[in-house]
From TrEMBL:
It comes from Actinoallomurus spadix. It is a multi-pass membrane protein. InterPro entries: ABC_transp_permease (IPR001851). The keyword Phosphoprotein does not apply. This is Branched-chain amino acid ABC transporter permease. It is found in: Cell membrane. The chain crosses the membrane at residues 6-27, 60-81, 88-109, 135-157, 178-202, 214-233, 240-261, 267-284.
Length: 309
């Protein structure tokens, strides 16, 4: 078994997905909830990108458009939750179902390839002179992921970011100091879905292929990546521990997928493998007595003593 090849495959395919799983992590960990809209917004980013590139437009602009439109879709989920009095999970399920038809209309077909269209990966390879496609993809995907990680970490270390994290821990306390938990949840949902849209655009450009079903397992694989990363990486920093854990967990998960592929395992069994990984991660966490919530750090210094629990 070529383990270097497994790692390179994981890095190449995992970097764009890590951005999507950061979007999952934001709601799952910072707000202690689930937003199933991420599956459709990931697909939306891919579908928008496919249509955009097939019309010969700038591939870099596709990243921005995908993130903005996906963030708007997240805002629809929040509006449905607030106006109809639904839970986030139920509201996201309803919006997720509706977005399937929207994505199909955007792409114009269940599937589309754009092998002859220009992508950011093709332009990057030409600009740098790197002829090895895999290395070029790793460098560009890793660079974009690093930028997203840096921006997200910086935001979460600001006062607004601290209030956002604290609102998921203790909404009543946050409300008492003049911060609206609803606004913090809105920011989290919109940002999380925007990240998924951006990731969908990256994955579509890397694969030169879009499919209306390509984001169906985003939420469950995202949670798997979060759990795997947290098992491996432990630290006192809420932000760095959480964000970097997602990236590490994503790479570990993609290593597992690459490994079983090289063993010749039928891809139809991948969902079962994912389920086993999730249950195993939960079992190990509970056996080791690892807390599910992060330790408060900057939030406990910015907010009143005893507020963050």
């Amino acid at each position: 078994m070529n383990y270097i090849g497994v790692l390179l495959d994981a890095l190449e395919t995992g970097m764009p997905f890590a951005i999507a799983y950061l979007g999952v992590w934001m709601v799952f960990r910072l707000q202690d909830d689930f937003d199933l809209t991420v599956g459709s917004t990931f697909t939306m980013g891919a579908c928008l990108t496919g249509t955009w590139l097939l019309h010969g437009h700038n591939p870099w602009a596709a990243l921005v458009i995908s993130a903005v439109v996906a963030g708007a879709a997240g805002a629809i989920t929040f509006a449905a939750m607030r106006l109809l009095g639904l839970s986030l999970v139920l509201a996201s399920i309803v919006v997720n179902v509706g977005l399937f038809s929207v994505n199909l209309a955007i792409l114009g077909a269940p599937q589309a390839n754009f092998f002859s269209a220009g992508t950011i990966f093709a332009s990057w390879s030409r600009a740098t002179g790197i002829h090895d496609t895999q290395y070029a993809n790793i460098l560009l995907g890793g660079g974009i992921t690093a930028i997203v990680v840096a921006i997200l970490s910086f935001f979460l270390l600001t006062e607004t970011g601290a209030a956002l994290r604290a609102s998921g821990m203790n909404p009543r306390m946050v409300r008492s100091v003049g911060v609206s938990p609803a606004v913090m949840l809105f920011i989290t949902i919109v940002a999380g879905n925007a990240l998924c849209g951006l990731a969908g655009s990256l994955v579509a450009q890397q694969q030169r292929f879009s499919d209306v079903n390509m984001g169906i397992d985003t939420i469950i694989v995202g949670v798997t990546a979060v759990l795997l990363g947290e098992l491996v990486l432990r630290g006192r920093s809420v932000v760095l521990h959480g964000v970097i854990a997602v990236v590490i967990g994503t790479i570990l998960y993609r290593c597992l997928i690459s490994y079983v592929l090289r063993l010749g395992v039928n891809p139809n069994y991948f969902n079962a493998i994912t389920a086993v990984v999730v249950f195993s991660a939960v079992f190990v966490r509970k056996s080791a007595g690892v807390r599910w919530r992060f330790r408060p750090s900057i939030a406990s210094r910015l907010l009143p003593k005893g507020a963050v629990k």
